[in-house]
User: What shape does this take?
Amino acid sequence: MSKTIETSHHPYATKSDMLVRLRKIEGQVRGISRMIDEDIYCDNILHQFRSVEAAINGVRKTLLEAHVKSCVVGQIQEGNLQVVDELITTIGKMTR
Amino acid sequence: MSKTIETSHHPYATKSDMLVRLRKIEGQVRGISRMIDEDIYCDNILHQFRSVEAAINGVRKTLLEAHVKSCVVGQIQEGNLQVVDELITTIGKMTR
Amino acid sequence: MSKTIETSHHPYATKSDMLVRLRKIEGQVRGISRMIDEDIYCDNILHQFRSVEAAINGVRKTLLEAHVKSCVVGQIQEGNLQVVDELITTIGKMTR
Amino acid sequence: MSKTIETSHHPYATKSDMLVRLRKIEGQVRGISRMIDEDIYCDNILHQFRSVEAAINGVRKTLLEAHVKSCVVGQIQEGNLQVVDELITTIGKMTR
Assistant: This one.
C-alpha cells in the first residue's frame, strides 16, 4: 500500500508524475515486443529503444533530484556527511 | 499476429529470447513503480534503474547483431551499399 | 613514418581531418590541466570535460565510419564474414 | 601561475593526482594520432579510444567528488541551497 502524503519523502506531485511516466515506459517496452514479434524493420525498433532509454533516464533524473533535495540536503544539514560518499558512489554508477 | 518462422528475418530462437527478456524488463519497470509508490530509499531504486538499463541494452545489442548478420550483410552482398550509411547512422545514435 | 596515400586504408582527407581534431583535443586536455591548476570553479571545468568527450566521440565515429566503409564492406564482399562478428563486438564495446 | 596550497579548494594530493592523470591522457591522445597516422588496424585504435574515455571519466569523477565534498557541502551547511540546483544540472549533463 502507498504511504500517505505526509510520510512520503517525495512531494506528492513528483511521485505521481514519476508513476505516470513509468507506466508509459511499460507500454513502450510492450510496443517493442510487438514490433519484434511483427518483424518490423530493425532500424525502426532501434529508434524505439532510444525513446525508452531517454524516458527511463528522465525518470531517474527526477528521482535523483528529489533524493538530493530531500534526503541528501537534510542529512548534510544534520551533520551526517556519510550521505555524501553514498551520493558520489551513486553518481559514479550513473555515469559508468 | 506473429509472422511464421520462414518469413521472419530473425532466427526463431533469437526472437523468442528477446521477447522473454522484454517481458522481464516490463516487470522490472513495474517493480520500480512499486518501489517509488512504497517510498523505498532512493538509492536502492536508482540501483534498480541500472538493472533495467543493462537489460534493455542487452536486448538492443541482440537485435542489432541479428540486424547486421541478416539484413546488412545480405544487402552488402547484393551490392546495396546504402545500408552501410544507415548502419553508421544507427551506431552513431547508439553511442550518443 | 606515415604511409603513403595509396596504401592507406583511409581516404587522405578523412585521415588528416582526424589528426587535426585529435591535436585540438590534446589542447583541450591541456586546457583542463590549466584550469585545475589555477583552481577554476569546478562546474566550469566539468563543462570542459563534456566538450572533450564530445570531440573524442566525434573522431571515433569518423574512424568507425571509415573502418566500416573500407575494411568491413570489402571483407564482406570477399566472403569473409568473420569481420561481422568483430564489428558487433566493437559496437558492443562502444555502447557499453 | 598555480595557486598556493592554502588557497586551493582541492586537497593538494587530489590536485596533483589529477594533473598527472591528465598529462597521461594527453599522451594517450597523441598515441591515437600516431596509430591513425601509421594506419594501424582500426579495431585496435577504437580500443585505445575506450582507454582514453575511461581515463577522462576517472578524472572527472575525482573532480566532481572534490567539488561535492568541498564546495557543495560547505555551501549547503551555510544555507546556500542554490548550489544544489547547480549540482543537479551538472549531474544531469554528465548522465546525458
Remarks:
- The helical segments of chain A are 12-37, 42-77, 82-94.
- Chain A is about 80% helix and 0% strand.
- The radius of gyration of chain A is 18 Å.
